[in-house]
Amino acid sequence: MSETNEMIAFPWGPGGDTFQFSLPDDWRIKTILEPNHPDNLPASEEELDRALANPIGSDPLKQFAKRGKTALIVIDDRTRPTPVDKLLPRVVEELNQAGVTDDNITIIVALGTHRKMTDEEIVERIGADMRARLNVVQHDCFDKKNNVPMGKTPTHGVSVSFNRLAVESDTIVTIGCIEAHEIAGFGGGYKNLMPGVAGPEAIYATHNARFVQPERISQSGMPRDRNRFRIMIDECGALLGPKVFIVNAVLDPANIVAVVAGDPLEAHAEGRRIVRSLSSVKLDRQADVVIANARPLDIDLRTSFKACLNASTALKPGGLFISTSAAPDAIGDMRLPSSLPKIAKEFIRLVPLRFLEPITTLVNRHPDQAVGTISVLSILKKAEAWLYYTPVTEGIGPLRSVGIEFFNDMDKLWKRAKQIRPQAEVVLLPQAGATFIAWD
């Protein structure tokens, strides 16, 4: 345990800046939980070439795609750190080598229920050359005429439909990243397909606590065989048949550490192993105070909350939770009511979660936000207080109403924190978006 309150630096925003602070007197650092950073990063082009030349559980893409004339490339949206612009050109090159011409290649943005991306955001994500060469569409999960029913998953009987392009294309290549995920355990693999390009049936059926049956507030890093949501995702993707090829990056936190390519299950398993070696940390006991920085999930407040869920495992019941986020895109596409009743905070404190869960599902039109809301409420019920430092000041009224205390002045935050905990043992997570507490 550190006995001195020396200056602490958190990575801050995408530009390589840092946010510096020191802890209050009589607070002591128990431990700093950080991802394991590789000593040397591979050249991204060389690593991609290696992965495509040595796919896992599959023929190389330039042979795999000879199954037909058309290909659909599924890319994740702006809420993921995937370097799509670095991966996409080589994928297109391999498809061309397989005989799939540019006219027969379509890129689809896997939005799930997220907002559409602007054309500027699409160009930034895929590059101007790819935007000019290829047809780009954005998935609309509520567009019934473009969603084709595919049957039900065998284990849970979930009804599934997919965008018509995914159903009718001869080859599907999904480009994404494998990162710790608060519901699915890990991102990547088939997850770009469900919920990415799926219809609303499976999304609504599964994005709730009743289906997920969470073992803790965040399921980041959870083993696949214990994760109902991940098993369901994989069964959904399998309904499309053996035409899916993944190209998934592992990042640290934005630079490529590794690329896995090939079979959606076998290649994803290898990617999970790599992420676990980087992001899994051990903690012998929970702390009085947890201070969690959202990096690299700090593009906006909506995304930053995922990092908060990861870090909440380190907090003692009744402890003080402090989170920080640069959030350059403000609240993002978080859909919040304009206001909440004054009794919301006390209502959340007093009402058991099993009664709050159906309420959150009822008031959230978008199911991805509903399941996140119940996780946020779980932190509010676990912690004595939740203090949030961020430059964001607009649109957070409803979050204040439920009990999160927002600050854009660290002196004021520390004054409030010392009122709650004059003395404390502290766990720090400088990159909570890329860190999870190891599972037994």
Molecular structure report:
The protein is of the alpha/beta class and 440 residues long. The chain folds into two domains: 8-32 and 282-437, 2-enoyl-CoA Hydratase, Chain A, domain 1, CATH 3.90.226.30; 44-278, LarA, N-terminal domain (Rossmann fold, 3-Layer(aba) Sandwich), CATH 3.40.50.11440. The chain contains 16 helices and 20 strands. Strands 3-19-15-16-17-18 form a six-stranded parallel sheet, with helices on both faces. Strands 6-5-4-9-12-13 form a six-stranded mixed sheet, sandwiched between helices. Helix 11 crosses helix 14. The longest helix has 16 residues, at 367-382. It is globular. The model has no long low-confidence stretch (mean pLDDT 92).
In short:
With 440 residues, the chain is of the alpha/beta class. It has 16 helices and 20 strands. 33% of the residues lie in helices and 24% in strands.
Keywords:
440 residues, alpha/beta, 2-enoyl-CoA Hydratase, Chain A, domain 1, 20 strands
Write the SSE topology:
Blueprint: E1 8-12, E2 17-21, E3 27-32, H1 44-53, H2 61-64, E4 71-76, H3 84-97, E5 105-110, H4 119-126, H5 128-133, E6 135-138, E7 147-152, E8 159-163, H6 164-168, E9 171-177, E10 180-181, E11 185-186, H7 200-206, H8 209-212, H9 228-238, E12 244-251, E13 256-262, H10 266-279, E14 280-281, E15 287-293, H11 301-312, E16 315-324, H12 344-350, H13 353-363, H14 367-382, E17 385-389, H15 397-402, E18 404-407, H16 410-420, E19 424-429, E20 436-437
Parallel strand pairs: 3-19, 4-5, 4-9, 5-6, 9-12, 14-20, 15-16, 15-19, 16-17, 17-18
Antiparallel strand pairs: 1-2, 7-8, 10-11, 12-13
Helix pairs in contact: 11-14, 13-14
